[in-house]
């Protein structure tokens, strides 16, 4: 007897909500599934599209289950049976796991959100949000670009699960929802998502039922590897000890195999044959030709097809240890291919999420600046006291923004992190993998008990903030923070928007002083809450599609335009007579979210600098008044010091660590290291993370002779770093000359081996000019002031380009290969021609603040 589906347009009532059935989807071992929509509900907006799971187990129990006016009727003897109870528990566990995954910050919105779970008739129903998605097995992608867009998001989804410690044992496209705008995927069925390892320092303890056991080993033979099929069969037959062998088989590499098969299916429109082993050269070339034939309009050449096949080949290798280590690594590999084919790479969700959190924070801190709510203490020192509640994923970005922007003169910053997991969050936020150096720059307490009351004075001149971790989340505690602790800036980040609304209403009731409340709401909406008290400013923070797509509002807001001006300053566009193409500058600016966040920090802090010296940003004449005040040396030095403090806070909350100047070559000039790249935590460092003081001790120029040993003894850590970097460049000149001579000796030898006298003469001329001018600019590098030999530097770069054209013209691969090494070797030489007085650069930023704010 077949299971019978609910008819279209029928209505079921779950916990007071009327849900309409639109269409049946499919059935699993525990349930039938449907598309539907909310007709009436006090919890969910009517019309919202949903996916409905009806507990209706297959097998023997189905024989005695029937429908009566749509409701399932289950005999008592069936519900009492072990088989039925086992299936019911499986269904309930699926709901519980889905609920937990949907609320897990690490899983970043890749699981559909369950709206409600309840009974109707003798069965249970799970109603989940699907937005405008459609199951992947029902989607037909036409172009290669569409297929790759889907593949990269599916692979990323699995990578996010891996990063959070989860494994997907039963990969099925029909369990994945696809939305085209934005291009995103969500997992519908999570019955086969399990923790495969302990998540130390990643999350709260998870109850043991999240861990996979032999009774819950579901697989899809269509996509899984032969090894995993055999393992599942042996587990089912009791021929292997599951607990003993699970770590051997239950690894991310098993998911990688499934993803490789799915990518093959997307590209070729069929499943791979057993004989189609891409590790065999003949098969690889045959499949390469098939790809080129299928996508001759989109694939540029054989190399592009080979790149795609290499991703599939590596993902489906027979030995799991040789495959990609996890979904993120496979996504990077495929994204690289996409970039070569389309000149566009897809941004990871974690970057999108960070960009949205940064935008939300900076936008709020610009519209409702912290200093407006500062309260002087009995000594006259202004106190900025911020309370941040809840554990939404935005919390990290909000905290980073508050610490970096909240640096002001004659002002102390305190941040109260209020949540049951506050201590756990702080441990992760300041862990080795995140922002470990921050612990040396702040003080912190736990529920009133001092844990750290000192900071490293070589790193910061004063504590960046006093952090208070509060695990009591009661209304009484929040009222005490408002009234007794005199906190005036509240940021409510509970994952449940209704909780934020309730706390908002509670906080502005009977407020004795002006306070600010920013609160997270689920959807875009009005920024100002209705019916607020006059003494309260309220700002709504949108959490809609937090990690799915950029909040396009960011490009319209004033803070973004201010950040663009800061970027223009960093690019040298504010120099006298500098030409600038603002359209091209903005296009380049938008594509690098690190640049956006960093520049917005710099621009936004300009407002706080202005307020630090008593200038109201909204007052007429503010720019003239600011300009006049910063002519005073003591004010200019104080604001430059403040800029360095804010920059230090930004860096320390972005994963950077202080490093010594002697490590400069490993930090900057080895294997393209970049502190923004967290792939190798050992290289996330910056030598200018050093304490600064509002004083000017280094001379304007001629550091090689003017800075004496006695003078160096009185330099603060930042000036010492500035001088140390200057000396590093000067002291390495001999090394750079030796390397340049070595590379050009190779050039000369290769040129002399040519047969054509004209080629030889032209090649030797390039050798001489590159060597002579190269030696001159190396000898003059890091000179102070920074204007000597700059014409020769520009001339050498031009000659280098012409030499490469010569090498390409004659098709000499050995000569061509030298330019990569030469560019890497000359990078510190070019950098040495930049200004190395970092306090001077901070002073310049104080003057640039006028342009940024205006």
Concise description?
The chain is an alpha/beta fold. 44% of the residues lie in helices and 14% in strands.
Protein model, in words:
The chain is of the alpha/beta class. Helix content is 44%, strand content 14%. The chain contains 28 helices and 24 strands. The strands form six sheets. Strands 14, 15, 16, 17, 18, 19, 20, 21 and 22 form a nine-stranded mixed beta sheet that branches. A six-stranded antiparallel beta sheet has the order 1-2-3-4-8-7, covered by helices on one side. Helix 14 links the parallel strand 20 (489-492) and strand 21 (515-521). Helix 24 packs antiparallel against helix 27. The termini are far apart. Residues 199-211 and 524-531 have low confidence and may be disordered.
Top keywords for this entry?
single chain; 854 residues; 9-stranded mixed β-sheet; 6-stranded antiparallel β-sheet; 28 helices; 24 strands; 44% helix
Q: What is the mean pLDDT?
A: 86
Instruction: Please summarize the sheet with the most strands.
Output: 9 strands, mixed
Compute the CA-based radius of gyration: 31 Å
* Share in β-strands: 5-15%
Poorly predicted parts: 199-211, 524-531
User: What overall geometry do the principal axes of the alpha carbons give?
Assistant: globular
Q: What is the count of helical runs?
A: 28
Number of strands: 24
Q: Helical amount among residues, as a percent range?
A: 40-55%
Oligomer: single chain
Q: Termini, distance in Å? A: 75 Å
Given helix and strand content, the structural type is alpha/beta
